[in-house]
Write a structure and sequence with these properties.
homodimer; alpha/beta; six-stranded mixed β-sheet; 15 helices; 14 strands; elongated
C-alpha cells in the first residue's frame, strides 16, 4: 500500500469549537471541498484526508495529525502546496508543524543538486570550517561600483558574494552589465590571491526572463545564484535545480506572514523542508538576535531540517543572516556547527575597508 | 519628476517602540538594507523610502505612508512584491493597507485582458445581470464523471463551470483527458440548449507545464482558465494575461496568511489591486458568512478595488464564493451589484440534480 502523506497541525480552537470537527473540516476542505454527505463512501475513503490522532494542550490548543493519499498531489509541487495549505490558509487557528514525507514525493522533487558538500567543493572550504557569505549592496549603485565592492570582498577571501535580494534589474545596474562586471571583478581578485571566491547574482525575475538570467549567470562564469522562491513561485526553484549547473541559494522574502504562533506553516518546515525539497542548496533565514524575531529554537529547527536524513536528499546549508556581526560569528559557528554559511553584510560595510573587514572576519573564525 | 509609489501601513508598535524609527527602518529594510550611516547622502535621498506622514491611533497603532522611487521596481513584478513586503514580511506589526500606483507601473503590468465586460461578451450575459459560476468536483472522480457533471450544469444554463482548484493533473482525471471531455460535454449541452456555458479548467501547474496546459485549454475550445497565482507565483498570471487569448479567473489559495489584522497585506489590496494589476479578469474570494472569516466590509473593499478607476486598467469581476447558497444569492447580488460573479458549488451538489439546481438558481436571481 502506498505510504500516506502525514501532516501535523497545531490547532487553536475557539472555546466552543470541537477540535475533531475542525480536523474533519480540514480533511474535506483540502481534498473534495464538499460536505461529507455529498461524497460517496468509496471516494471518501480513498480521497478525503484521514484524522489520525489528536490530543489536547492547554488553552484550547490541540496537536493533531491528518494523513492524505499522495495520489492527490499528482507528483506536482503546485498541487502539493495547495493540499498542504491552499484553502486553510484562509481559516483561523491552523498551523502546520511537521510533515512526514512519502519516499515517492521526496524522489519526485529531488532536493539540492549541490547541497552543503557541493558548496564546499565549489568554494574549496574543507569540512570542519564554516563558509562565509556577504551581500553586494546597496541597490542604487551602478554596476562598476558594485563590482568594485565584490572585488574588495574577494580580495579578503569572502567565500560567497551574493547580490542583495533587492538588487534585480534596475536601470542603475542592469542585470547583464552587473553580472558581467561583478563576476569579472571576483575572477580578477581570485587570480591575484589564488583564492576561490564565488559571485551569486540575484536571478529572481519575472516568469519569462528567468531562463535568460540563469543563462547569463552561467555564461559569465558564475557557479551559483540567489533566488527568492516565494516571490517567483516555489516550483520555479524546483525547475531550476540542476538544470543550469548552478547552485541555488534561497532567500526568505515574502514568507514571513506564514510564521505566526497560531497560524501558518512553521518556519522550519517552510525554510527547511520545503526549500530543501525543492532544491535550495543553501537556505537563508533571519538569525536570532538580529533585525528579525526568530528564536534560537526556531533557528536550530531550521538547521535540523536542512540537514536531517530525508530520503536520498542531500543536506543543504543553513545560512543565518540579517543583522549578524563579526564579533559574534565564532559563537554562532560553535552553536550551529561548521556545516553552516555565515551571512554577514552590514557590519562589514560599517568597517569601511571591505577587504580588511573580510580578513578580520576570517581570522575571527580561525580561517 | 516621476510619480512615487505611495504605500500606506498600519503599524502596531510595542509600548516602547518609536513609530517613526519603525518607519525609517522599513524604508531602509525595503531598499538599501544597510544602516543609515553606511549610505551616502545622495544615494539615500534617491533610493531609500521616504516617511511621508504618520498619525497615532489607539493601542499603540499608527497609520503611516512611505513613498518609494518607482525606479527601484525596475518594471518587474517580482521586484515590486519584494519592495512592498519582501523582508518586512518577517517583521512584526506591519500591515499594508493601501497603495497609490504610479501610472507607469499600472501601464507596465496591464491588468485584465478581458475584465468584467469581456466576461459578459464571452458568456453572453447582458449588463445588469450577475454571472453564475460553479466548481467541478470532487477530486477523485474520473474525467467522464466530471464531464457528466459539467454537462448537467451546462444544461441548466450555468455561465462558468470551473474546475475545483484542487483538481490538477491527478491520475484519476489527467489534465488533457479531463479538459477534452469536459469542454466537449459543455459544447454538447450548449448545442442542445442554444446556451453559452463556458468551462474554465484549472491550469495551476509546475513552471515547465504551464504553457502546455494553456495550449491544451485553448485548443480544446475553452475561453478561460482557473489559476491559483499565489501558488504558481503572481508573475505567472501577469505573463499569461492576453498571451493565449484565455480569460483568467484567480483563486486565493495560499494567500490567507497575509490577512492578519496587525500584519500582512490587506485582502482588498492582495485579492483586489494586486490580482487585478497582474491580469485577473475575475478574482475569487471567500464571501462573508460562508466557510471563511472575511467581514462584509472586507468583501466590499475587495469589490471596490476590482472595479475602481485604476489608470487604464479594465475593471475585474468580484467572485465571492465558499459556502454560498442558492437562497441567499439574490441578496448578495443586491448587496454587491450585478457586475459580480456568484460562485456556488456545494449547495448545488447537495440538491442532487445539477441541472435543476442550476435552473432554480437562475430563476432565483431573475435570469
Amino acid at each position: 500500500m502506498d505510504e500516506r502523506l502525514q501532516v501535523d497541525y497545531l490547532l487553536t480552537c475557539q472555546p466552543d469549537e470541537d477540535p475533531e470537527a475542525k480536523l474533519r473540516d480540514i480533511a474535506l476542505e483540502q481534498t473534495v471541498e464538499l460536505p461529507r454527505d455529498c461524497v460517496p463512501d468509496a471516494l471518501y475513503e480513498r480521497v478525503v484526508g484521514r484524522v489520525e490522532r489528536f490530543s489536547a494542550l492547554p488553552d484550547h490548543r490541540f496537536e493533531a495529525t491528518l494523513s492524505f493519499n499522495p495520489a492527490l498531489v499528482g507528483g506536482e509541487l503546485t498541487q502539493l502546496l495547495n493540499t498542504l495549505f491552499g484553502n486553510i490558509s484562509l481559516k483561523d487557528g491552523i498551523r502546520l508543524t511537521d510533515i512526514r514525507w512519502p519516499r515517492d514525493l521526496l524522489d519526485a522533487f529531488g532536493g539540492p543538486a549541490f547541497g552543503m558538500t557541493g558548496l564546499r567543493q565549489l568554494t574549496g572550504v574543507p569540512g570542519g570550517e564554516a563558509l562565509l557569505c556577504t551581500a553586494l549592496k546597496p541597490v542604487g549603485l551602478d554596476a562598476d561600483a558594485l563590482a568594485e565592492r565584490a572585488y574588495r570582498f574577494a580580495l579578503g577571501g569572502m567565500d560567497i558574494i551574493k547580490d542583495d535580494h533587492g538588487v534585480a534589474d534596475q536601470a542603475d545596474a542592469p542585470f547583464v552589465e552587473r553580472v558581467t562586471a561583478c563576476q569579472s571583478a571576483v575572477a580578477q581578485a581570485n587570480a591575484e590571491t589564488g583564492g576561490n571566491s564565488l559571485y551569486f547574482p540575484n536571478v529572481t525575475a519575472p516568469w519569462h526572463l528567468l531562463e535568460a538570467r540563469m543563462t547569463v549567470a552561467r555564461e559569465a562564469g558564475c557557479r551559483g545564484v540567489l533566488i527568492s522562491p516565494w516571490i517567483t513561485g516555489l516550483d520555479t526553484m524546483r525547475w531550476l535545480r540542476g538544470r543550469f549547473g548552478l547552485a541555488l541559494m534561497a532567500h526568505p522574502a515574502l514568507t514571513g506572514s506564514y510564521f505566526r504562533p497560531d497560524h501558518g506553516i512553521s518556519p522550519d518546515l517552510l525554510l527547511g523542508d520545503l526549500f530543501r525539497l525543492t532544491g535550495a542548496d543553501a537556505s537563508i533565514y533571519p538569525n536570532t538576535g538580529g533585525r528579525f524575531g526568530f528564536s534560537l529554537a526556531t533557528c536550530e529547527a531550521i538547521n535540523h531540517r536542512l540537514r536531517y536524513p530525508m530520503g536520498e536528499l542531500l543536506p543543504a546549508a543553513p545560512t543565518p543572516g540579517g543583522g549578524m556581526d563579526v564579533a559574534r560569528a565564532p559563537g554562532w559557528i560553535e552553536q550551529y556547527g561548521a556545516d553552516t554559511i555565515m551571512l554577514i553584510g552590514g557590519s562589514l560595510y560599517a568597517q569601511g575597508d571591505l577587504t580588511r573587514a573580510t580578513e578580520a572576519l576570517r581570522k575571527a573564525i580561525g580561517r
